[in-house]
Amino acid sequence: xxxxxxxxxxxxxxxxxxxxxxxxxxxxxxxxxxxxxxxxxxxxxxxxxxxxxxxxxxxxxxxxxxxxxxxxxxxxxxxxxxxxxxxxxxxxxxxxxxxxxxxxxxxxxxxxxxxxxxxxxxxxxxxxxxxxxxxxxxxxxxxxxxxxxxxxxxxxxxxxxxxxxxxxxxxxxxxxxxxxxxxxxxxxxxxxxxxxxxxxxxxxxxxxxxxxxxxxxxxxxxxxxxxxxxxxxxxxxxxxxxxxxxxxxxxxxxxxxxxxxxxxxxxxxx
Length: 270
Description:
The protein is mostly beta strands. The protein has one domain (2-269): Jelly Rolls (Sandwich), CATH 2.60.120. 1% of the residues lie in helices and 50% in strands. The chain has one helix and 22 strands. It has one helix spanning 137-140, and strands at residues 2-6, 12-15, 19-23, 41-49, 54-60, 64-71, 74-78, 83-86, 90-95, 100-106, 112-119, 129-134, 145-150, 166-168, 173-179, 184-188, 203-210, 225-230, 233-238, 242-248, 252-257, 263-269. Strands 1-20-17-22-15-13-14 form a seven-stranded mixed sheet. Strands 2-3-4-11-6-9-12 form a seven-stranded antiparallel sheet, with no helix packed on it. A four-stranded antiparallel sheet has the order 5-10-7-8, with no helix packed on it. β7 and β8 form a beta hairpin. The protein is globular. The two termini are 16 Å apart.
């Protein structure tokens, strides 16, 4: 197994007063040719938006766009007529397809902290769609919750609101956990991507990210820490850090909380 850390301080970042944001991959004014995408995963932004502000109405096409709320409330409006306030544990997907317009703004008196995630669809020209899912903290406590999966995966509903993973028109699965101190979870690299595509390679890859739940750009003396290990490789990630991880099908990876507080961890299988 091979682990390549993506440290928080090395990510693209900007402080616009109303918006504090970190970019794992090239986005907006930030460009880094070594970090443009990972498999179908194209955007992973960690945003904090001040009250009474947000992203005004703007357009998207040919991307699968997720909003995962860590804290606060996020108001979504779009050209398909969807109006919704997303809260802690909510995950919303806009399958932009041939084109949509939407806005995302802070709802209520407190800032909103959320992850903005984009993946590339299997094909262009899809009909725009909208999905919402809710996952409780208990569902994620010291175990992986499968929160996003390709549309043709077992247990995936195509209803606007339903139980189970959010459907995505892309070869991406997302798992998340709230990992307590000294606890660990494992991940086994799958034998094939969940889309059922004819990929016969045994080489698999995942991207892992640790949310900045202790605050915007926490210093070394605070925040959660997790250790990734497997097949002779290991590294420690702090809040805001990520890692590119490469393994062979069937290989197992361990994720252990080596800090003193709960860590919110995201694992993208792409």
